[in-house]
Design a protein that fits this description.
With 139 residues, this protein is of the alpha+beta class. It has 2 domains: 54 residues, no CATH class; 84 residues, Beta Barrel (OB fold (Dihydrolipoamide Acetyltransferase, E2P)), CATH 2.40.50. Helix content is 17%, strand content 39%. It has a 5-stranded mixed barrel with strand order 4-5-6-8-7. β7 and β8 form a beta hairpin. 24% of the residues are buried. Bound molecules: zinc ion. It comes from Paratractidigestivibacter faecalis. This is Zinc ribbon domain-containing protein.
């Protein structure tokens, strides 16, 4: 995955990560925010979106602990993690790697989600060879 091979929209997203900024696309028609950014709006299908910055804060919607097939050693170098759906404060939902969720803490986090409590997360950018990767971490 080389930067020059990516589409401009993906490139700006990754360049943002290098600078600690989180770039999203906002729909000119309905105002929905696409993050990670897409060219068109997934909410209404409108083709015109514009750049905006999002805070990198949100809430955990759901998660699963990694099993033997999808447990990645390079991810573990940064701590214990799970895979989870995050809804950012600006409204877009996507699946990310979530740090701070351990097997021990998982039942309590699951109970909080079931009870409708907000489980806050924030963006955590990790270094990969040649690029930055966006993950999230429990607040
Ligand atoms: Zn829209």
């Amino acid at each position: 995955m080389k930067l020059e091979m990516m589409e401009p929209i993906v490139k700006k997203f990754y360049e943002g990560l290098e600078q600690g900024k989180f770039y999203a696309r906002k729909c000119k028609e309905c105002g929905a925010v696409e993050f990670p950014p897409h060219l068109a709006c997934n909410a209404c299908g409108y083709h015109e979106t514009e750049w905006c910055e999002v805070s990198g804060h949100g809430r955990l919607v759901d998660f699963t602990l990694p099993g033997p097939q999808n447990d990645k050693p390079y991810l573990k170098e940064n701590g214990k993690y799970a895979y989870g759906a995050v809804e950012i404060d600006e409204g877009a939902q996507y699946t990310y790697v979530i740090y701070g969720i351990t097997k021990k803490k998982a039942p309590a986090i699951r109970a909080a989600l079931m009870a409708g409590e907000k489980v806050g997360v924030h963006a955590k950018v990790i270094d990969r060879p040649g690029y930055k990767m966006l993950t999230f971490e429990l607040d």
